[in-house]
Amino acid sequence: MIPYLAWILLFVLAPLILILYQSFTNSAGQFTLQNYVTYGTSWVYLKMSLNSFWYALLITIVTLLISYPTAYFLSKTKRQQLWLLLIILPTWINLLLKTYAFIGLFSQTGSVNQFLTFVGIGPKQLLFSDSSFLLVASYIEIPFMILPIYNAIVQLDPALVNASRDLGATNFQTFRKVIFPLTLSGVKAGVQAVFIPSLSLFMVTRLIGGNRVITLGTAIEEHFMTTMNWGMGSTIGVILIVMMFIIMFLTNDRKKKHREVMADEKETL
Known about the structure:
Blueprint: H1 2-23, H2 34-41, H3 43-76, H4 80-88, H5 95-106, H6 111-118, H7 130-154, H8 158-166, H9 171-182, H10 184-199, H11 203-207, H12 216-225, H13 230-250, H14 254-268
Helix pairs in contact: 1-13, 2-3, 3-7, 3-10, 7-10, 8-9, 10-13, 12-13
């Protein structure tokens, strides 16, 4: 346990403590609460928080709408492992490389605009827009939504679905009453895996969204790398961590854990 505890202490707890300490200091290193007061009273920071939550919510909804049908049909196809490999494969590529690839696709001389010119629509301004940011961010996050939903669907007992249909339920009723409730744990895990990282996106917002998309991740980067106001940057980081813990609490599958505890107790007895 010593290497594991040392890793947790040095690379998890120590950075969190350092960020928390920096959030209570000013540029001179003196203790102050002004950073939190500024954050709570400034409409600029509150708007950034709303923008971060809104874009993270949109990315989560888009990925969920795409991922759930994909995971469901994937569980019914042959060669599932091959399809899973193709879905996981883009995650092996560096995020920066994928972002620059989309810059090449969406630029004025990129493949997309060349196709639009070929069909007579003409080149369009695709980069530095909300839609391009949502598209690229959703593409990056989709595998992290598909995998937990797929695992939940695969673990679903087919006898329950067959029983629902034998009792006269339609396909939609079976999905609404049986399949979706029993795979909700996978949906919650996917929401955690997508929503939480989407709150702190800054590379995609900067390169794809330009200055049109401003989030808390962008603000943290700005304070640490440009204005050198580490105190305010750390304060925003603490707020972001608190928001992440709230999302984890709200999407935590407490019923599943309760069932696992009860099962363990029964086995013990």
